[in-house]
Amino acid sequence: MAVHTSLPGRHRRPGERATRPHVHRSSLIVLAVCAVLYGLYAEVVVRHGDGPFTGGQAVLAVVSMVVFGALWYGYLLVRRALPREARAAAFGLLFGGSIGFLYGLSGNSVLTVAVVSLILAVSSGLAAFYVFYTHE
Hints:
Structural class: mainly alpha
Number of domains: 2
Order of helices and strands: HHHH
Shape: globular
Helix content: 55-70%
Distance between the termini: 27 Å
């Protein structure tokens, strides 16, 4: 007869706080690559995929890279200290806000951008909560 074996979890216990923020090198590499791709995609959205590359678009790409990377790095620093509900909400805000910014650059109305961002933030936050809840 098969028996289920309980193994100790890989994560912290409820109520236990991380002693110091720690971000793995691989996470930083993924963050840097995604930030560069995010900034370049923001530039392409503004340019509408054709036309000359201007200085204003280069500034937008660099600022988008830096802000997106800084927000993601901030999330990586505080995620272990947050309870799973707040961690999922922070992830949802980061995802919904970043995709909403890109969608807003495409020239859609503010109401449409707000609704799409809210839907994406809530759905990704719920998905993150499910993952955090089932893996802790």
